[in-house]
Amino acid sequence: MEMYMLSIVKFNAKESMSILQHNYLLQIMPLSLHLHHDIFVQIQDLEAKAEYQSNVYMFRSAIVFLQKALRLAIDNFGSRHPYVGDLYNNLGNAHQSNREYEKAIECYEQALRVYLHTLGTIHSHIGNTYYNFGNTYFNQEYYDKAIQYHGFALKIRKKLLGIVNRDVGDSCWNLGLAFKRKGENQSALTCYEEAWKVYNVVLGEWNEETLQAKVQVRSLK
């Protein structure tokens, strides 16, 4: 197993609107927007194009599509709708993939403001946003901030999802990685052990990510 595989930060959390969310939003929209619900189709088409561009590493094009989707959403739903928060989050992910870390942080800050206003303090979207903050700070080598925000994400995820969940495992992995980069090996070991236990249950003993966590644990003991 190549060692560089063991230092990869787990991917950012992406937000998307479900069919139920779509139908609910249609129910609460004014009649004028019911008559123009093709806005949803336009936004989702832009999101699909952005996702395709990201998948082929054309992040600048993805950013352009997401910016257009965000503008449509704000113009039609207002600046404090959770869907707008989702688009800010996904735009932040595109900026981060393009190594535009300050712009990514700005987008996550906007997403967090929207979510805290509309969803309260304990919600999966808020946990995901903290997780994305943590990844961005890690990529900037701001390990203290990465640890802080991954800690926030882990606390919310455990509260909402329990301790045996893939997202919880990913938060533990990224915390372990940040602690290891800081040279705090005992804290890193604790996080990797927890990630290993979660992955072992959720993904299976012989899954590649489970084995990677196991290697990290053994290397730190």
Can you describe this structure in just a few lines?
Keywords: Repeat, TPR repeat. Helix content is 76%, strand content 0%. By secondary structure, it is mostly helical.
Topology (elements, then pairings):
Blueprint: H1 19-28, H2 31-34, H3 38-55, H4 59-77, H5 82-97, H6 101-119, H7 124-139, H8 143-161, H9 166-182, H10 185-202, H11 208-220
Helix pairs in contact: 3-4, 4-5, 5-6, 5-7, 6-7, 7-8, 8-9, 9-10, 10-11
TPR repeats: 85-118, 127-160
InterPro entries: TPR-like_helical_dom_sf (IPR011990), TPR_rpt (IPR019734)
Pfam families: TPR_12
What is the CATH-assigned architecture of the domain at 17-120?
Alpha Horseshoe
**How many angstroms separate the termini?**
19 Å
Query: What is the CATH domain class of the domain at 17-120?
Result: Mainly Alpha
| Radius of gyration from the alpha-carbon trace, in angstroms | 19 Å
Textual characterization of the structure:
By secondary structure, the chain is mainly α. It has a domain at 17-120: Serine Threonine Protein Phosphatase 5, Tetratricopeptide repeat (Alpha Horseshoe). Helix content is 76%, strand content 0%. It has eleven helices and no strands. It has helices at 19-28, 31-34, 38-55, 59-77, 82-97, 101-119, 124-139, 143-161, 166-182, 185-202, 208-220. Helix 5 (82-97) runs antiparallel to helix 6 (101-119).
Index terms:
single chain, 221 residues, mainly alpha, Serine Threonine Protein Phosphatase 5, Tetratricopeptide repeat, elongated, disordered N terminus, TPR_rpt, repeat
